[in-house]
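Quick one:
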Amino acid sequence: MIDLHCHILPALDDGALDLDDAVAMARQGEEDGVETVCATPHIRHDHDVVIGELARRVAELNAELRGRGVGIRVTTGAEVAETALPGLTDDELRLASLGGGGRWILLEPAPGPLGDSLDAAVEALQRRGFRSVIAHPERHPHAQLGAHLARLVRRGALVQATAAMLEHEQASPVIVELAQRGLVHLLASDAHSSRAGRPLRLSGGFAALRAAEQLAGRIDWMAREAPAAILAGQDVDPPFSPVCA
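Output:
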C-alpha cells in the first residue's frame, strides 16, 4: 500500500515531534503493510515550512530509517492549503507535488463547508499544469458535499479520504456512500504522530471499503495503482465515474 498523506517529517509542522516519533510512525506503517509514505507537511500561513528544504529532509529521514532497519520508503510532497496557492511559484509547486512527480498537488480545503474557492483553486492549478488531490473531504460536511465533489471530479480532481475515519462508527457510512458513488479514489493515513491521534495505518480503512460488495473490485486500484501513478507524475483516469445522487 502507498500512503499519500502523512506528516512524518520530524519537528517541522504539527506532525512528528522528533526523529524517534517519525521512526515509530514508519514502523507503524511497515507493520500495516504500507511500503511507501509521501511526506506532506503543511504549506500554509501557520507553519514555517521551506519547500526548498523538503528533499533534504526526506533524504535524511530515509537514511535514518535504513540505519534503524525500517524498510518503508518516504517520498517528497506537501499538503498545500488552497489559500497558499497564489503565493507559490510553479517551481515551488513542482517541488511540493506528490512524489516530486511534478503533476499532483495534495490540496487542503479551507475550513468549513467546501466552497467555490476550492473550485477556483482546482481550476487555477489546472491552468498551471497541475492536477489536484482533494484532502479529507469528510472534514467539510454539508448537504451538497456529494454534488460538490462530483463537480470537482468532473474537473479532473481526485478525492482522498482518511483511512481511520472508516473505522469510526459515525463517519464510516458517509465515506462508504461517497465511495460507492465514485467520489473517493484514495485512502491515506493523515497521521501526525505515533504517540497520539491517527496511526499510520491504512488496512482497516480498506477493509471497510472491501466489505461493501460494490467496492471490492476497486481496492487494488485505490491502494496501489492510482497512488503509484500519482507519485510518478502520470495522469490518472479513474475506472469508475462519479454519480451525483
